[in-house]
Amino acid sequence: MTVKIEAKDLTKVYPSRNGPICALRDFSLRVEEGEFVCIVGPSGCGKSTFLRILGGLITPSSGRVELFPRDEKAPLQNIVFQEYAIFPWKTVLDNVAFGLEMRGVPRTKRRETARDWIRKVGLAKFADAYPHQLSGGMKQRVSIARAFANDPEILLMDEPLGALDAQTRVILQGELVRLWEASRKTVVYITHSIEESVLLGDRIVLMTAHPGTYKTEFSVPFARPRSFELTGAPEFARLSYAIWQELEVEVKRTMEKQL
Ligand SMILES: Nc1ncnc2c1ncn2[C@@H]1O[C@H](COP(=O)(O)OP(=O)(O)OP(=O)(O)O)[C@@H](O)[C@H]1O
Ligand SMILES: [Mg+2]
C-alpha cells in the first residue's frame, strides 16, 4: 500500500471577534492511494476546515499535511463543494473544460475530454447550456464532471450531494460509485449521511463534536461494484446503525452546547 495523504496533529484556530475559535484539534489521518475515505461528524466539527487544509486553501495553525504525488505534471488535488461552484457565464462544456484550460491543455483535446465526461454524467444534450438552465442535480453533475475531467490524483469532496433532494441524491450516489469504481482515485469525501458513507466508502472516519478531532473509524466490508441495492441488505443496516450509535453521542454533545 502506498500512502497518499498523511495529516498529522492538525490544529486550526480561526481568529474571530469573540476570540479565537479552535475549529480542528490534533486531527490525524492517513489515506492510502486509491482509497475512498468518508468523513462523518456533527455540524461545525471542522470537516470543511480539514478538507480546505488538504486542498491548500488554508494553512493549519499547527501540525502538518503531506500529499504524495505520483506524477509531478498531473494535478494533485481538486475540490468539489456542496454549492455547485460553477461559472454562471460559461457553458457546461466550458465549465467542465475549465481545469484543463488552466493547465494549458490544447482546445481540441480539452473539449474532447470534457465532452466525454459530460456524456458520462448524462448531460450530453446540455453541453452548450448555461448553468441557469440546469436543475441543482444537473449543476452538481457539472461540478463532478469537471473534477473527474481534470484527472487529479486526489479528489476532495465536501458534501457534494448535500444540496440535492433525496431522490436526485440517490441517483448521483449511484453515478459517483460507478465513476469512482472505474477510476479508483484517492478520495476524501465529507458527508452528513451515514448511508451515503457506507454505500460509497472503503473506510469511514468519525469526528468528535467541536472542536473536532478523530473519534473512531469503521471499515466497509462490502464487495464492489456496489449499487443502491446494497442499502436493502441487513448487513448494510447493521453497519449504518453501529456508526449512528457512535455519532449520536457527538451530535447530542453539539446540540447541548448550542442550547
Ligand atoms: N473562516 C472562519 N472564521 C472563523 N470561524 C470559522 C471559520 N470557518 C469555520 N469556522 C468555525 O470553525 C468550526 C468548524 O467549521 P467547519 O466549517 O470546518 O465545520 P464543518 O464540520 O464543515 O461543519 P458543517 O457540517 O456544518 O459543514 C465552526 O465552529 C465554525 O463556526
Ligand atoms: Mg462543512
Write the layout of secondary structure elements.
Elements: E1 3-14, E2 21-32, E3 36-40, H1 47-54, E4 62-67, E5 77-80, H2 92-96, H3 98-102, H4 107-120, H5 136-149, E6 154-158, H6 166-183, E7 186-190, H7 194-200, E8 203-207, E9 214-219, H8 234-258
Parallel strand pairs: 3-7, 3-8, 5-6, 6-7
Antiparallel strand pairs: 1-2, 1-4, 8-9
Helix pairs in contact: 4-5, 7-8
The structure holds adenosine-5'-triphosphate and magnesium ion.
Residues 47-48, 158 line the site of magnesium ion (MG).
Provide a quick synopsis of the model.
It is built from eight helices and nine strands. By secondary structure, the chain is of the alpha/beta class. A six-stranded mixed sheet has the order 5-6-7-3-8-9, with helices on both faces. The chain has a three-stranded antiparallel sheet with strand order 2-1-4, with helices on one face.
